[in-house]
Amino acid sequence: MSPTSHTTPLPTRTPTRTPTRRPTARVLAASALTIGMLAVAGCGSSDSSSEAAPSTTSTATPAEKGGPLDLSGVCPSTIVMQQDWQPEAEHGAMYNLVGDGYTVDTDKKSVTGPLVVNGTDTGVKIEVRPGGPNTNFQPVPALMYLDPDILIGAVNTDAAIVADADQPTVAVASQMTYSPQILMWDPASHPGAKTIKEAAAGGDPVVTSGDVLPNLLLSQGIITQAQIDTSYEGTPQRFVSDPKILQQGFATAEPYIYKNEISQWGKDVSYQLLSEVGYTIYPEPLAVRKADVTDKADCLKKLVPIMQQSQIDYLSSPAHANAVIVDLVTKYDTGWTYSAGVANFSVEQQKKLGIVVNDPASGVFGQFDPDRMSAIVKDFTPFLVSSGSMTQDAASKIDPSALYTNEFIDPSIKMP
């Protein structure tokens, strides 16, 4: 979803100085219910030696030699993609490309399989690695510079700003157009409230795991200094016991989880997307190391359009990727829980709320808006400096145009 990283190895989705994502209410929910899993028979196998079962061999059709879906020869034989958190539907475009016959390394926590696009085998493999506790909460840019095998990483715009001085990354395709992060509240405790401003008008605490979000709201006069509470630990206990608070969450997860998987709550929550009140970063766009824009250009020319289309295809037909995601969560067995219900809800929310849409400026899916990128740098560097995430000197040297490129985007790819 939309975690924010640091140049130091801080938790990517645990309380830090910046907006984060952690194992939220679903961790508690797992102990209170039996999660309905999607059927994944025949999708993959799992053991520490990563040996595929014979019955799961890919039957995809080989790509036309030299055609747009043939990645052999121009891309690494295994394209390694690094996510920032545990497997979930917000990462669907990556998992959508993991073909049948995949293997799961339960020690290293990774999945590897043929990279398949709508039944066509691209001639290379894809390996997707989860982040968060699986990588000791190291920021994705740091992981990319520690391990040159990683080609693609999911790097939030504000994380890219923080890392730019020492670990510069360049975003090559947007996946989610807007952040799914929300502030949520109990509708009974805030009757009639439709917005964060209305819900916060009574002065109740705004509970987050970092200070960028509340300071953003403070700068707009939506909340007061006295309302800021950065003690959120990612569990539902506080919200359940003190329903007057406003609490951070994700539109793609918490509304479903609180209603369906937390028996102590079991009802609707109200919320507003933070992207509607100034949290304008690009969440988890696909990024490469700065040098790879040139060094891997031949690969990226073919791979980026595939990633553009994969996100669109995933939202249209999420069953395969969601089955892979739920299967991996079960096999990784890290304490993170994720049900098929949450995955399906996330897909619907991404579409319903306009979290994944064509770039409004160009109409092209996955393309970056130069004006928006400049505004993000202008608006967020002061918060990142004041939070201690970066120095003023580093902030003054940020070039918004260096944080992204539309060079590899296929302008013909658009959401219907």
Automatic annotation (TrEMBL):
Gene3D superfamilies in the cross-refs: Periplasmic binding protein-like II
Start-end of Low complexity biased regions: 7-18, 45-64
Organism expressing this protein natively: Quadrisphaera granulorum
Entry protein name: ABC-type nitrate/sulfonate/bicarbonate transport system substrate-binding protein
Annotated segments matching region Disordered: 1-24, 43-71
